[in-house]
Amino acid sequence: MRQAGRSLPEYRKVREGISMLDSCSRPELITEITLQPLRRYNVDAAILYSDIVVPLRAVGIDVDIKAGIGPVVGSPVRTSADLARLRPLDPDDVPYVTEAVRSLVAELDERPLIGFAGGPFTLASYLVEGGPSKNHDKTKALMYGDPELWHALLGRLADITISFLQIQVAAGASAVQLFDSWVGAVSPEDYRHAILPHTSRIFAALGEKGGGEVGGVPRIHFGVGTGELLGLMGEAGADVVGVDWRIPLDEAVRRVDPGKALQGNLDPAILLAPWEVIEERAKDIIVRGRTAEGHVFNLGHGVLPETDPAVLAKLADLVHAESVHGPN
To answer: Where exactly are the structural domains of the chain?
Structure first.
């Protein structure tokens, strides 16, 4: 997952005195932090160092990431008039992303770079709530109480996200991952009517090349607490559906329509346990993953900052060994 670097001492050192969003707007830092995990771990791809609110800040939203809190929005978006602040994203708004992606592609040689963006519900939640929320009360109130405004908001966020991902692909990203981290807070029915159309449009825009559009890359869709939404997330159009640790991988296979690969789903907290426990759980996930049409072994969410980097390195080696030598 994209937070693989935050447990590294070299990451903490390079970030000293630099805010999160500032580090996401410096091409040399984006490049360095993206590459740091690859110097330690034998992983198969790099994931762009960024944050889901980077494009919001780029279009002029007053947002910052407060230590120990998360994204905080100065003026929440809750009315039709507020939508005017969500203007389209232009490549000139994020030149540091283009520069960093090009630099990374050159450094990585043939190893793929996965682009990154936030999903519409999660972005909307931060904008409406004004910051992190346990229950997403204001967000859901808007979704239920003013569907017209809700769809207008998610439509604009989808436009921004499409542009942000297309910019990364145009610069050389080999695949894209959409993190709708908090979308597990809604019911399947609400997901289908209030979120799915916008997520589908995002994946459709990245799925095909033609007419001058940038696309044609593999697409990954991930959310937290989305066991009841996995089928719908597959319907949204991604090629790979991410699964968190709350549901067995072979059960996830039954919930997602054929034609999709799965990604996941080791509980990040297991990495704090003795190696024997980690090894047993990882091997179990690999076995369950063989029931899927394709399986990208990964964690079920981000790396915890207190994780021992040596354990992650050992895990990556184990997965490769089991994938090559284990039963088909």
So the answer is: 2-325
CB 246 within 8 A of CB 266: no
Strands 113-118 and 70-73: unpaired
Quick check: 205 and 155 in contact, CB under 8 A? no
SS3 126: helix
**Cβ count within 10 A of residue 261:** 17
Nearest Cα to Cα of residue 169 among 218, 215, 124? 215
The partner residues of 176 in beta bridges, in order of sequence, read 115, 219
Q: How far apart are CA 276 and CA 273, in angstroms?
A: 8
Number of H helices, E strands in the chain: 14, 9
Packing angle of the helix pair 120-129, 147-171 (nearest 10 deg) = 120
Fold annotation for 2-325: TIM Barrel (3.20.20)
Give the catalytic positions in this structure. 2, 6, 15, 51, 126
pLDDT digit string (tens) for 185-239? Answer: 999 999 999 999 999 999 999 986 544 456 689 999 999 999 999 999 999 999 9
Q: Is the dihedral of CA 324, 271, 294, 328 positive or negative?
A: positive
